Amino acid sequence: xxxxxxxxxxxxxxxxxxxxxxxxxxxxxxxxxxxxxxxxxxxxxxxxxxxxxxxxxxxxxxxxxxxxxxxxxxxxxxxxxxxxxxxxxxxxxxxxxxxxxxxxxxxxxxxxxxxxxxxxxxxxxxxxxxxxxxxxxxxxxxxxxxxxxxxxxxxxxxxxxxxxxxxxxxxxxxxxxxxxxxxxxxxxxxxxxxxxxxxxxxxxxxxxxxxxxxxxxxxxxxxxxxxxxxxxxxxxxxxxxxxxxx
Amino acid sequence: xxxxxxxxxxxxxxxxxxxxxxxxxxxxxxxxxxxxxxxxxxxxxxxxxxxxxxxxxxxxxxxxxxxxxxxxxxxxxxxxxxxxxxxxxxxxxxxxxxxxxxxxxxxxxxxxxxxxxxxxxxxxxxxxxxxxxxxxxxxxxxxxxxxxxxxxxxxxxxxxxxxxxxxxxxxxxxxxxxxxxxxxxxxxxxxxxxxxxxxxxxxxxxxxxxxxxxxxxxxxxxxxxxxxxxxxxxxxxxxxxxxxxxxxxxxxxxxxxxxxxxxxxx
Lengths: 246, 266
Prior knowledge:
Chain A is α/β, with parallel strands linked by helices. Chain A has 2 domains: 26-104 and 207-239, 3-Layer(aba) Sandwich (D-Maltodextrin-Binding Protein, domain 2), CATH 3.40.190.10; 107-205, Periplasmic binding protein-like II (D-Maltodextrin-Binding Protein, domain 2, 3-Layer(aba) Sandwich). In chain A, 38% of the residues lie in helices and 22% in strands. By secondary structure, chain B is mainly α. Chain B has a single domain, classed as MetI-like (MetI-like fold, Orthogonal Bundle). Chain B contains 13 helices and no strands. Chain B has helices at residues 13-36, 42-47, 49-82, 88-95, 97-100, 103-114, 121-128, 136-161, 164-172, 177-205, 209-214, 225-235, 237-263. At the A-B interface, β7 and α6 of A face α6 and α12 of B.
């Protein structure tokens, strides 16, 4: 019995990799917003190719979760946030200063391929026969949607307020809604199942993406943040549907 | 329920130490919540209409989901425990699929079946003009999907533990299988059924992933407490803690209230 318990404990430790190893100082731990996943993986690979010895590791999640993790002392060197609000909370808590805006993202109306409902403008969404998904106001894409709808003076009763932008888009991909308000980058990252319809009111609700090296991070972290402003990084971002910072 | 005084016997350290460590592991996160909770704003938060709306919706849907689990789960458990059919092992494994499946994936799977373009959903929409996604009924369906295995596993365990000779005796006295089930078996396994129902209810009450994926989030219609907590977490940690504690307190009161009455083991 005792031997079984000891064996089980050893097994649990082995399976979870509880060994506690040292950390390579050349590794840059980048905490980045989930919407940056594809672009940052490419930018990270380019950065590593540029600087032999540098090693970039990513932790992708919602900006608010990342901000909370950093404020609870997670070992991050760089924070890239999808919203100035979350970056602001990290700066206010004293973990970073002087964030830079490196990209912007704009809302579009995502519709199933071929636009079966014939949606051409934001006001078309007000049709009560349509089923629409938007993000909850608590997350950045929801706040942006609220601003854009207010700008257009449109009252919209969506079928659901989703918890994040990928879940909102998934409702279109699965055919459960006729349209959804998401970022342009999300519709480009999705396959040919969805199409993006641009609308002018989105200009009132453009999202700034900010990055900063965190306090105590080494020189490579600052270099990575600087690299985000390079021509090469911007080309990758624009390719994915982001816009250059103004 | 008070136990009769037992002879004092030394508790073996090999059991006591891990038991205490395990308890600490389970209880410490709760203490973490209690320590961080902004007690002063608690009454205000409780009085907020959206909080009460979400709480009431959670209690109603979790109870309805438990009823659904009982109606379908008890017969499944009986089949697994009492009828020897080919592929029984496979069926038993399939019943536990919702336990292993990440709830969000469960929600997507439900959409693929009951959604507007789903296998059954498209037919329901065309024939009756009703759809489950984004409705309160959809919340119940998502909850029942993830909670059902708890009921089936508990009840099957109770059935296996129950002495089959009582059922055989009932049969020799002329009772049919249905009569033997309702008059003899069910009363015998009542504590197991109650325990399974309590587990299912608790699981349904805490359900988040499958619910938000299948039923979405709309205040008053599909926004249950766990979804309200998750969204509060995006902006206000303290609000999220308060909401979690309210949900915890209500569930503990309900479960403790039931425990003495129905789930006390014989």
